[in-house]
Amino acid sequence: MVASRTFGGTSGRNGGSEVDQPIEFVIRASQPDTVDALREYVAHRLSFVLRRFAPRIRRITVRVLDLNGPRRGVDSRCSMTVDLIDGRRIFVNATTAWPFASVTQAVHRLNRAIRRGFTHAAAYRGPARRTS
């Protein structure tokens, strides 16, 4: 199932968040009832972890796959690709026994990769200069 959703970077009037970055979901699960729950879980985890980076993110693609397919195995892979405004692309994946654990691990890896990428980019730019 492929769906598109967005997560917000700025707070709305009622404590919610305005949506502005698209998230493309590709979820292939053996049980259809888990697809909606996974989509909501991914959107919640990403909005919480990546909120401060939202202005720098163009698009996010999330793929959650059941590696064993109809054999009902317990291996799930979550892959996340983030396209940044400056043209860079960050890719992480995680494979665990359960799809929600794969999402959690991939989100943590994505958070570290994005923070590391922005820290290195800031180091190469040099210190901020004052103009007065």
Can you characterise this structure?
There is one protein chain. This protein is an alpha+beta fold and 132 residues long. It has helices at residues 33-50, 99-125; strands at residues 2-11, 17-28, 57-66, 76-84, 89-96. Strands 1-2-3-4-5 form a five-stranded mixed β-sheet, covered by helices on one side. A hairpin with a 5-residue loop joins strand 1 and strand 2 (17-28). Helix 1 packs parallel to helix 2. The chain is elongated and about 65 Å long. The model is unreliable at 1-19 (pLDDT under 50).
Describe this structure in a few short sentences.
The protein has helices at 33-50, 99-125; strands at 2-11, 17-28, 57-66, 76-84, 89-96.
Largest beta sheet: strand ordering: 1-2-3-4-5
CATH architecture call: 2-Layer Sandwich
**Low-pLDDT runs:** 1-19
Average pLDDT, all residues: 77
User: What is the CATH topology classification name?
Assistant: Double Stranded RNA Binding Domain
Portion in helices: 25-40%
Reported for the largest beta sheet, the result is: 5 strands, mixed
Task: Identify the overall geometry.
Answer: elongated
Our count of helices gives 2
The number of distinct β-strands equals 5
